[in-house]
Amino acid sequence: MTQSDATVWAVIVGLGIGTFLIRFSFLGLVGDRPLPNWLLRLLRYTPVAVMPGLVAPLILWPEATGGTLDPARLAAAAVTLGVGLYTRNVVASVLVGMVTLFALLALIP
Amino acid sequence: MTGSSANSSQGGVIAGSFGKGAVAGAPFLLVIIPFALLFGVVGTEAGLNLAQVMGFSMLVIAGAAQFTAVQLMVEDAPTLIALLTALAVNLRMAMYSASLVPYLGAAPLWQRLLICYGLVDQTYAVSIARFESPPAMTVSDRVAYILGAFTMIAIPWYAATLLGAVLGAAIPPGLPLDFAVPITFLALIAPALKTLPHVVAALTSTCMALAFSWIPYSLGLIVAAVLAMAAGAACEIWMERRA
C-alpha cells in the first residue's frame, strides 16, 4: 500500500460517514411519518428480496473453490433451506447445515 | 399497581427483549468471528496500522465494504474510486433502513442514531424476522431487541478484528467457514418464506442477482432486490384481486 496515513484515514472516515448516512437514510429522516401504502407493500418484501440475491452467487460460485460449483456446498445449502422450511428454527438449520458441510467435505476427497 | 412497579415491570420486559435479541444474534458469531479475524489479518498485511484496522471495524462495521476498500487501496486505485466502490457495496442497507421505518420510526432520534450505526446484515435479518412475527412488540421493546442483537455481534466483531491484527497469520486456516455466510442467511430466509408473494420475491431475487451479477459495483444486487420487491408486491395485489 503506497497511500499516506492521511489518505488511508480519509477513506476510513469517508466510508464510515457514508455508510452511516446510507443506514440513517430512511429510518433517520422519515422517522414516524406514515409511508404511503404502495411503498409499505414493496418494503414488506425487503428481507426476501435482498438476502436470497446476496447469497445465491456465494452458493453457486463459492470463492473457496475458485468459483466452480461444489457438490458439498450445494448440498449443505439445500439441507439448510430444507430444515429451515420444515422446522422454522434458525439455530437448528445452521447447525444441521454446517454439520452436513463438514461431513460431506470429509467424505468427498 | 403503583407507578414504580409498572415502570420496573416495563423495564424487565425491555431487558428481556435486549437479551432475546442477543440470543437471536448469537448464531451469527459463526460468521462474524472468522470474518473479523480475517479482516484484521488482511488489513495488517496490506500495510494498515493497528489504529487504522480498528478504525475500519469500528467506524464502518461492514465486512464486505471494508475488504473492498482495502483491496482497492492495495491495488493503488484512485482514492475516490476506492471510497465510492466500497460505499456502493453498502447500498442495500438503505433498503433495510426503509423497511424498518414502520417498526422503529417512532423511536427517539438518539436511539435511531444508535440503531443506524449498527444496522448490519445480521442485526437487520434477525430483527425484522422478529418484528414481523406475532406477538407484536412495543417500539421500545423493538429498540432493545435490535440493540441486543447488535451488541452480540459488534463486541466480537471488534475483538476478533483486534485479535486478527495482533496475531496475524498465526491463526490456522482449516475449517470451511467461508460457507458460514450463506448457511446462516439461508437459515433466516427459510422461515421468511411465509406466503406465495414472499416465495415469488425470493425466487426473483435469486434469479435476477445471478443474471445481473455482471453489473459492477455490486449494483446487480440492488437491481435484483428492487425487481424482487416489485414481484412480491405484484403477486400480493394479484392474490387480493383473486380472493
Write up this protein:
The complex is a heterodimer of chains A (109) and B (243). With 109 residues, chain A is mostly helical. Helix content of chain A is 76%, strand content 0%. Chain A has 2 domains: 1-33; 40-107, no CATH class. The mean pLDDT of chain A is 93. Chain B has 243 residues and is an all-alpha fold. In chain B, helix 2 packs antiparallel against helix 3 (50-60) and helix 3 (50-60) packs antiparallel against helix 9 (139-167). Residues 1-6 of chain B have low confidence and may be disordered. Chains A and B meet through helix 1, helix 2, helix 3, helix 4 and helix 5 of A and helix 3, helix 4, helix 5, helix 6 and helix 7 of B.
Compact description:
The complex is a heterodimer of chains A (109) and B (243). With 109 residues, chain A is mainly α.
Described by the principal axes of the CA atoms, the overall outline of chain A is flat
Query: Using only CA atoms, what is the Rg of chain B?
Result: 20 Å
Which quaternary structure do these chains form? Answer: heterodimer
Order of helices and strands of chain A: HHHHH
Reading the helices and strands of chain B in chain order gives HHHHHHHHHHHH
The largest sheet of chain B, given as strand count, sense and whether it forms a barrel, is: none
Question: Care to count the β-strands of chain B?
Answer: 0
Question: What distance separates the N and C termini of chain B?
Answer: 47 Å
The total domain count of chain A is 2
Tell me, rounded to a whole number, the average pLDDT of chain A.
93
Number of helices of chain B: 12
Number of domains of chain B: 2
User: Ends of chain A: how far apart?
Assistant: 38 Å
Strand content of chain B: under 5%
Low-confidence stretches of chain B: 1-6
What is the tally of helical segments of chain A? 5
Largest interface: A-B, 74 and 97 residues
